[in-house]
Task: inverse folding
């Protein structure tokens, strides 16, 4: 086969770039790297050289007999790859080209390490303990038991007096503990505290009123009137004789509806001795000494008067006739009245039940009646 010449002759076949590490890389050829080809700025390809016109091929070339392959071609061989030795035995008008210039432009921004490295081994966290078992989320904090006890105890204070102050104390203790522990029940503790405080205050006021009001009434009324009279109970409790002035309007033989309760006999009510009566004036006793003002001290003057009065009763009435609940008594002047000249005391006979008749007149009849 013949190779066409002339303008239509094909250009030299480009030679591929040698691979990295090839020992036959031409001089001046840039060293290859692992940089991708599309990122390298390559120089433009050189223009193809003009070839000399060649003689036309003979119409019928004669093959020499000595060569089994035919005569050698007379056309100019294709330009060899720069840096490679040309074929031998051919005449060629080709002249070697200058070596290709070094690539121009800036080096790529990145330069990977040509030494391949293995990827870093993944790191794993250090093995720990066993996973904790699942537990449900915590619920609301428990109610403080002191708060419940405070409310219940304070409410029982409506029936039991001591429940209110105890509930008040429990409520205060519950509030302090809830503030420290964070437990629930603050509302219960507040309710118990308020209820206990209110009930405690009410009971305290009631106790004060129960003590103060009677004392105030007794102080206002007193056991002694402005005239020196007193009732029987206060008389038994007195330790000092109250001031009074004995009335001298009564006489022996007069009957009284009831026994006088006042020292001065100002409450004596004179009645007819034929009617039922409890007391009768038997005698007027002359005194040799005053009665002591101290009612707790031994009093010889009072003892003498009482003995003389009992003798008068025994003389006036047979003791066998007298009711069991009968006694003799004396009413005497105050020591201050003694100093003023009062020297007379009354001796009276008191019987229960009320009697009729007069012991002085000798018509005494015991019992059965009711005094007016």
Result:
């Amino acid at each position: 086969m013949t190779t066409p010449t002339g303008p239509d002759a094909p250009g030299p076949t480009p030679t591929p770039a040698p691979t990295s590490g090839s020992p036959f890389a031409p001089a001046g050829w840039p060293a290859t790297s692992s940089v991708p080809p599309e990122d390298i700025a390559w120089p433009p390809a050189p223009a193809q050289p003009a070839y000399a016109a060649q003689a036309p091929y003979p119409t019928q070339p004669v093959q020499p007999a000595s060569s089994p392959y035919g005569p050698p071609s007379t056309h100019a061989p294709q330009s060899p790859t720069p840096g490679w030795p040309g074929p031998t035995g051919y005449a060629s008008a080709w002249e070697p080209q200058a070596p290709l210039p070094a690539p121009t432009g800036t080096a790529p921004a990145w330069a990977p390490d040509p030494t391949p490295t293995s990827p870093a081994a993944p790191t794993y966290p250090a093995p720990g303990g066993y996973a904790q078992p699942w537990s449900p989320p915590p619920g609301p904090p428990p109610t403080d038991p002191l708060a419940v006890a405070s409310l219940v105890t304070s409410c029982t204070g409506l029936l039991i007096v001591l429940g209110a102050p105890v509930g008040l104390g429990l409520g205060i203790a519950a509030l302090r503990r809830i503030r420290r522990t964070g437990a629930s029940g603050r509302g219960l503790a507040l309710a118990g505290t308020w209820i206990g405080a209110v009930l405690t205050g009410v009971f305290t006021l009631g106790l004060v009123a129960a003590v103060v009001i009677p004392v105030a009434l007794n102080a206002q009324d007193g056991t002694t009137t402005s005239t020196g009279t007193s009732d029987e109970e206060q008389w038994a409790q007195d330790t000092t004789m109250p001031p009074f002035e004995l009335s001298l309007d009564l006489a022996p033989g007069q009957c009284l509806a009831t026994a006088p309760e006042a020292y001065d006999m100002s409450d004596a009510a004179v009645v007819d001795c034929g009617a039922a009566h409890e007391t009768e004036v038997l005698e007027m006793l002359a005194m040799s000494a005053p009665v002591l003002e101290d009612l707790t001290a031994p009093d010889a003057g009072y003892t003498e008067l009482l003995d003389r009065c009992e003798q008068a009763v025994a003389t006036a009435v047979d003791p066998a006739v007298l009711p069991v609940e009968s006694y003799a008594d004396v009413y005497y002047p105050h020591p201050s009245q003694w100093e003023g000249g009062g020297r007379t005391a009354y001796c009276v006979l008191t019987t229960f039940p009320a009697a009729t008749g007069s012991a002085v007149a000798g018509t005494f009849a015991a019992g059965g009646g009711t005094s007016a």
About this structure: The first strand starts at residue 255 and ends at 256.
